[in-house]
């Protein structure tokens, strides 16, 4: 059999029994990533639908999340086409003679596969950090009125995430190229650094991003349960941190670097990151501010009426119509006092004086931010009694 035929995915799978290699087998990899990628697609499309039909525009955090989704899409396609090479490399490191012969019989094809792997890993890391930038852009309007040291902390988080992205996407996958064999991996300090630094920086930046909404909610004058609810939606990146910790915990398998395990959890982190980043706008639309949730319900009502051909609210009294809209989809709005308390803490109550133009909101039209409706620029004169 020729070297080119040995390099085909089907032949490699038959000769090496790739379905039984590693802690995560190739079939398990394909099924799990397929499920989570499908969830990510649905949640992302739902977010875009909500943005376009309730706000009529997209924002900076949407742009970052769209970029993350695009890289995840390309990376997933590339992963399904080239996942077998990851398991071939693991089999070769474990000393499988067939794997060594497959790689050695066609080195040029293996070099090409290695190039695809570098691109694949770079795309997955770009997805992960693009989701982080989505969160950072999402939190930017909330920084109004915060202390200077906290602004510096926010900027340092952005800088560290950029450095971590460059290191994880471009430096770590390429630096190991001159070294071969498990002896080099175990003894070379550069190799060890490239193995451990990306997941450590990934978890560190996740924790720093999680700390931002926790600090923002610390002094908000709302009920504890409301804080917990807001924090759950604002700290969804904790799931990405969990994936990073699990990925790091399974670095070694039978004394070897478990490359499939690393790639699987990195891929899964990208899918979960896109899903969690998309979910952040769902709360404001479904149970968030009165304006956004009511507008979304009105749109769904128009769709229902168009399908059924009639509207049951046409003859209802005004008061009854309001109550009907509230319970139609079982999506009650947050009490106004809760929103008022949050607005007051940020110094942006609707009845307070207009915020200064240099308050950091210039990049985000406050009237257009759905989840940040609690931060809307005031339009009326101040009312001292609200303080």
UniProtKB/TrEMBL annotation:
The chain crosses the membrane at residues 29-50, 62-81, 114-139, 151-175, 195-218, 230-250, 262-282. Keywords: Membrane, Transmembrane, Transmembrane helix. InterPro entries: Rhodopsin_dom_fungi, SAT4-like. It is found in: Membrane. GO terms for cellular component: membrane. Its main location: membrane. The keyword Nucleus does not apply. Residues 47-284 form the Rhodopsin domain. It is a multi-pass membrane protein. Belongs to the SAT4 family. This is Rhodopsin domain-containing protein. It comes from Aspergillus sclerotioniger CBS 115572.
């Amino acid at each position: 059999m020729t070297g080119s035929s040995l390099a085909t995915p089907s032949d490699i799978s038959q000769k090496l029994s790739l379905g039984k290699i590693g802690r995560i087998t190739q079939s398990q990899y394909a099924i799990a990533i397929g499920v989570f990628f499908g969830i990510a697609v649905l949640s992302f499309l739902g977010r875009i639908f909500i943005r376009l039909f309730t706000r009529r525009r997209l924002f900076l955090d949407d742009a970052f999340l769209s970029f993350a989704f695009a890289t995840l899409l390309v990376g997933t396609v590339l992963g399904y086409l080239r996942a077998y090479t990851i398991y071939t490399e693991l089999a070769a490191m474990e000393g499988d003679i067939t794997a060594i012969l497959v790689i050695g019989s066609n080195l040029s094809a293996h070099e090409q596969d290695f190039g695809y792997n570098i691109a694949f890993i770079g795309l997955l890391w770009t997805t992960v950090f693009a989701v982080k930038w989505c969160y950072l852009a999402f939190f930017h309007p909330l920084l109004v009125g915060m202390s200077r040291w906290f602004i510096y902390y926010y900027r340092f988080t952005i800088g560290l995430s950029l450095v971590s992205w460059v290191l994880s996407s471009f430096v770590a996958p390429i630096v190991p190229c001159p070294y071969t064999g498990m002896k080099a991996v175990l003894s070379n300090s550069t190799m060890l650094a490239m193995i451990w630094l990306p997941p450590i920086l990934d978890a560190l930046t996740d924790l720093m991003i999680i700390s931002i909404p926790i600090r923002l909610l610390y002094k908000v004058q709302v009920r504890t349960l409301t804080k917990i609810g807001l924090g759950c939606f604002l700290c969804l990146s904790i799931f990405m941190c969990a994936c990073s910790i699990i990925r790091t915990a399974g670095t070694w398998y039978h004394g070897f670097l478990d490359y499939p395990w690393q790639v699987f959890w990195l891929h899964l982190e990208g899918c979960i990151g896109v899903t969690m980043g998309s979910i952040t706008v769902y709360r404001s639309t479904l149970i968030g501010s009165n304006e956004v949730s009511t507008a979304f319900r009105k749109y769904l009502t128009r769709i229902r009426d168009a399908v059924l051909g009639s509207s049951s609210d046409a003859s209802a009294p005004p008061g009854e119509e309001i109550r009907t809209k509230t319970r139609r989809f079982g999506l009650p709005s947050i009490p106004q006092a809760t929103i008022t308390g949050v607005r007051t803490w940020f110094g942006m109550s609707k009845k307070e004086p207009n915020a200064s133009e240099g308050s950091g909101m210039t990049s985000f039209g406050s009237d257009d931010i759905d989840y940040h409706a609690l931060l809307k620029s005031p339009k009326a004169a101040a009312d001292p009694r609200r303080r």
